[in-house]
Write a structure and sequence with these properties.
This protein is of the alpha/beta class. The protein has 17 helices and 26 strands. The structure holds zinc ion (2 copies). One zinc ion binds next to loops.
Length: about 600
């Protein structure tokens, strides 16, 4: 039933009238509680109930999924405790009916190319190469800084040579990641770039993939469900990037979905990252493929730590900038600075409309929360003392030092200039050789709120540091008052595992070890007891006002504005629980949640909420 409600999350049986062809994956019209609704055909029923209604008709000639994709959707529903109908809706773009039925051009053969032998030079690479050519397995690959695109191209080439198709998942569409462009160029006509686009073109492309027109699909999150007929490889580029996780509920992660899909299809999953995520490192089923310590040491730049200077102007960094012909300065904040005090009345700066914090950018002060022009909440004045610390201010002072143009660049750095940007500018721009990479406000970045704050800061630093080139090339300078912190030390040692060994302990202490499913559950007064009975690893019950104490990193406060995916506010008498489920009891948890949803005791389940 195409009704995304946990309480109705079960198959319903209908009779297929004589002459109506509707294999698994067909969309049909069926009567349901006096209405006609759409339903997915899931296959023949095991048991036939006494009274069975007829299918009213076929809604489309397209067979939207086969048994293998259905198995993936079923897995998805179990893992994220979400209705099967919601899982299927994740995998199929909104229909544009006039594109159906669809003639599909035959797939071109992949262009013959040279067979590079880079993968096999990595530790564990021989096993990966063999799996790509017809076997299966799940791998965590840590490429050398310049190797990402070349490794992806080689892996996809090996997969195609073995007669199977491949998916390349990238975390964002704009700017087009270097790895995506390189793979597109390497395989030409065989590639479908499934990245954004208007609904009609997107649906057309999806139908063509389903029809076997392409051998390679490049896309962001939804492409993990791409209906390639013979899947051999799912390659996740920049696996630690936040873009690989869905923001809306169910907040799935392509690494988990990709791994499940690879297992069900007998294919290969590769999670590739210069700095893998805590989840990937904690997953014992991922075989590690890396270049080895000596090769890694030679390929990564030397990283210096210095005490933070005023507004980021540490003496060492200033000295390097004076002779730099290219560089990147990573700032933790956009804009120019933060208004601290009203110049008219001397009160702390706050928005007159909503009391929010006031930021200055491009010469204007505006409220961070409501966007209103900056006016003092106390006296209405518009002149503020500003603490100058954002990327715009950094670009201002750097321009007085560097001998080359200094620019603020949201897309990332370029040769011949010094670029200033936030983490959003740290994109996959391909190999670079910058003279200087400066990481300003390192302590503010690594202390960002949220469980994944430190690891995402580190992943960003590794990607930026790679732009300085191998040892003996450019300089990497980290401004920090805590050079011994594991996040900083992991970068200095060019060893993400140094951080993860310590991070795991911190996450376990907080009750959220990597690899353990987490759910936010809303329901009635009996909810807490029902969850306790499931012996969860960790259970937090909302205090007054729905707050869930003890979740944020110590010393940090969550100032993230609510997003569209945020669940609605707590109702009167409602319990909100945050529960960490032991992986082995996930199935029992899912059954209990569905039972409680049917009984009206659970109103909402959100998998993997932002913590
Ligand atoms: Zn405001
Ligand atoms: Zn004032």
């Amino acid at each position: 039933m195409r009704v995304p409600r946990l309480a109705l999350d079960r198959p319903f049986t209908y009779r297929l009238p004589e002459g109506l062809e509707a294999p698994t994956g067909s969309l049909v019209a069926v009567p349901f509680h006096g209405r006609v609704v759409e339903g997915w055909v899931l296959g023949p029923a095991d048991e036939i109930p006494d009274r069975v209604a007829d299918v009213r008709g076929l809604r489309s000639g397209v067979r939207f999924f086969d048994e293998r994709l259905l198995a993936l959707y079923r897995w998805f529903g179990q893992r994220y405790v979400t209705p099967l109908a919601s899982a299927i809706d994740r995998g199929i773009p909104p229909r544009v009916v006039s594109e159906e039925p669809f003639p599909v051009a035959p797939a071109p053969g992949p262009p013959p190319g040279p067979r590079p032998e880079r993968v096999v030079r990595y530790e564990g690479g021989g096993h990966l190469a063999a799996a790509l050519e017809g076997g299966s397995g799940t791998f965590l690959v840590r490429p050398l800084p310049d190797d990402e695109a070349a490794l992806a191209i080689e892996a996809i080439g090996r997969c195609l040579a073995g007669g199977r198709d491949a998916v390349l998942l990238v975390p964002e569409a704009h700017p087009l990641p270097h790895t995506a462009a390189a793979v597109r160029d390497a395989f030409g006509d065989a590639v479908c770039v499934f990245l954004q686009g208007e609904p009609r073109a997107r649906y057309r492309a999806w139908l063509d993939v389903l029809g076997g027109r392409y051998r390679v699909v490049i896309g962001s999150r939804p492409a993990v469900f791409a209906p390639l007929p013979s899947l051999g490889l799912v390659w996740i580029s920049r696996e630690a990037h936040a873009g690989h996780r869905e923001d809306r509920s169910p907040a799935y992660h392509v690494r988990d979905v990709g791994a499940a899909r690879a297992r069900l299809a007998g294919a290969v999953l590769v999670a590739a990252s210069l700095c893998p995520s805590a989840e990937a490192v904690a997953d014992p089923s991922l075989e590690v493929v890396r270049a080895g310590r000596d090769a890694e040491q030679a390929a990564w730049p030397v990283v210096e730590t210095v005490r933070p200077g005023p507004e980021g102007r540490a003496r060492r960094l200033v000295a390097l900038l004076k002779s730099a012909r290219s560089g990147f300065l990573l700032s933790s904040r956009p804009g120019y600075g933060v208004a601290r005090v009203c110049r008219a009345c001397g009160e702390p700066a706050a928005c007159a409309a909503c009391g929010g914090a006031l930021d200055q950018a491009r010469g204007r002060v505006t409220c961070r929360a409501c966007g209103a022009p900056g006016r003092c909440a106390h006296c209405g004045a518009t002149d503020f003392g500003v603490q100058r610390r954002g990327a715009e201010r950094v670009a201002e002072w750097a321009a007085r030092i560097a001998p080359v143009p200094v620019r603020e660049g949201a897309a990332g750095p370029a040769p011949g200039a010094v670029t200033v940007g936030t983490a959003a500018a740290v994109n996959d721009v391909g190999p670079l050789r910058l003279d200087v990479v400066g990481i300003l406000d390192a302590d503010r970045m690594r202390l960002r709120p949220g469980l994944a704050g430190p690891e995402q800061a580190l992943a960003t630093w590794f990607e930026a540091a790679a732009w300085a080139g191998p040892r003996g090339g450019g300089h990497v300078v980290v401004e920090t008052a805590h050079p011994g912190d594991p996040v900083v030390q992991a970068l200095v040692r060019s060893d993400p595992w140094y951080f993860h060994a310590r991070e795991r302990a911190r996450r376990e202490e907080a009750g959220f070890p990597p690899g353990f499913p987490v759910f936010r559950v809303r329901g009635g007064a009996g909810l807490t007891d029902r969850l306790e009975a499931l012996d969860p690893l960790h259970l937090l019950v909302a205090g007054e006002g729905g707050g869930l104490g003890g979740v944020a990193r110590p010393g940090a406060s969550d100032t993230r504005p609510p997003t569209a995916g945020e669940p609605p506010k707590e109702n009167e008498g409602e319990r909100v629980c945050l529960v960490t489920v032991r992986p082995e009891s996930l199935a029992a948890f899912g059954r209990t949640m569905r039972d409680l949803a049917r009984a009206g005791e659970v109103t909402r389940v959100d998998a993997e909420p932002h913590l």
